[in-house]
Design goal:
Layout: E1 2-3, E2 11-19, H1 22-33, E3 44-52, E4 57-64, H2 67-75, H3 77-86, E5 90-102, E6 108-109, E7 116-124, H4 129-136, E8 149-157, E9 162-169, H5 172-179, E10 194-208
Antiparallel strand pairs: 1-6, 2-4, 2-5, 3-4, 3-10, 5-8, 7-9, 7-10, 8-9
Length: 210
């Protein structure tokens, strides 16, 4: 089991893989399941692999002790070889982040509870990141009473261009019902230009420490 906590101070990577078919999606999982436990790799806390419900994408929520450990991992010949194999049939975007906000209780990642997980990626100019963060960490007070809601965490992109919410729901119906609720008028900071991506996933495999 993995957990998302601010106090851990981990480097958190959203490694987004995009393939052209369900077969290639399966090939990515086959490759990762063949790796040794996380403790074999210096600095790796866990790799949490989520299957995209679009049948083509994969989200790896990867937790590392430090950026230096992750960069050392990328420099290894074995890593370059495996990544090259994966990128022969997929393309990847890697977004380094830090956890800045969680619901109470904070999210837990376990195969025993494969929640409907929504990864919301918001992109904005670096000068607007703080505004987006303030908006995305302003939890509505009724959220805890919302049917099907489990937990969430908000992440700040280290490059200054991203804010990412990792949100757990009991099922897709509950999430869509939440989205369709009547919105109360809010007097917030001026709107900024953003782009938003929603990735619907379920946790399928955890590469964790043995």
């Amino acid at each position: 089991m993995s957990a998302i906590r601010i106090d851990d101070g981990y480097l958190t990577l959203f490694n987004m893989f995009y393939t052209n078919s369900g077969e290639d999606q399966d090939k990515l999982f086959d490759q990762w399941r063949g790796l040794p436990p996380a403790n074999v790799q210096k600095g790796l806390i866990a790799g949490n692999f989520h299957r995209g419900l679009d049948g083509r994408s994969v989200v790896n929520y990867a937790q590392w002790e430090s950026l230096a450990d992750y960069e050392a991992f990328l420099a290894e010949a074995g890593t370059r070889s495996r990544l090259g194999q994966a990128l022969a049939f997929s393309h990847m975007e890697s977004i380094p982040t830090e956890v800045v906000h969680t619901w109470d209780p904070a999210p837990e990642l376990t195969i025993d509870k494969p929640w409907f997980t929504v990864v919301i990626i918001v992109r904005a100019a670096p000068e607007h990141q703080a505004t987006v963060l303030a908006e995305m960490t302003n939890d509505p007070p009724e959220l805890g009473d919302t049917p099907g809601y489990v937990s969430h965490a908000v992440h700040r992109g280290l490059a200054g261009e991203h804010v990412i919410k990792y949100a757990q729901w009991a099922d897709e119906e509950s999430f869509r019902s939440f989205l369709s609720r009547p919105q109360q008028e809010q007097h917030s900071s001026p709107a900024v230009e953003t782009t938003v991506e929603l990735h619907f996933t379920r946790l399928e495999y955890i590469r964790e420490r043995s």
